[in-house]
Amino acid sequence: MRWRFLPQAIVYLLGDSRALALAFPWLGAWAFLAYLYHQGATETGSRRIGWELALLLGCSAPIFVSTGWLGVNDAWIFLGLCYLSFGRRRWLHVLCCLACPLIDERFVFGLPLAFYVRAIARSETGTFGTCATYLLRTVSLAVLPFLLTRLLFAHARGGGDADRAFLLSSIRTAHVYLWMAPMALWMAWRMAFVPAAEVFVRLTKDRPALGALGGAAALLPVMVGFLLASDTMRTAAVLAPFVVWSAVQWGKDPDKARFLRWLAAANLILPAAQVSYTTIVPINSLPVELWHLLHH
Asked: Within 13 Å of residue 83, how many CA atoms lie on the same side as its CB?
């Protein structure tokens, strides 16, 4: 937690308000939802599809965690990852790479997939070789601020030893919770995985080498993250750039766009859960929550 100090620093500079400290994750959740709506509406030209995408993708781990765990700011880092994939302002790219690792290190694990999606979505590269070179260059530059920060300060007051001890302890005890990882993976995005799976299969079928590269960019960081942290649902959320891009691709296709509303409705109706370590905390479905609201 010693490296996740940016939200606390912002709250302190704005007056050290307890209310702002508790609201900061919620502000990130609303900002992420607004970006999802904007991306969907802009890319498809339909506000209705923008709302459907926001509902579908909003019933996900970044929102669950940011609104359900006190002081955890996951929505901000996934907003940063998605902006790296779809945003056009270079200075904001730099700001994301400087700020987001100081909110949570999972941002670094999401960088390969974020730039892979950017390469595919913006047609910045068309072959396996050029795509791999692009990923190597951009990920290296994006992770540089994080690495420099750690190299400069990791050994201050024994911080480096504490970090190594924590990581080694996590790896040694990973076998205790890894059997929960499949459920955590599913709960991270649930029905939003449907467009992602279809787009990935189609991409792999049309361009096998690029599909394999995308699979590696998605799965390898998640698998390493599972070993290093027991809150596996939060780690699985680094698939955000590809999940969001795939849903937008469905929104552009008239034949598939009509299914988005049903997937969004399913995410609202089907119960969900927070998954961390070996603990499952149920999240009621929308009908159950409405029933509680009307009867209390």
From this structure: 24
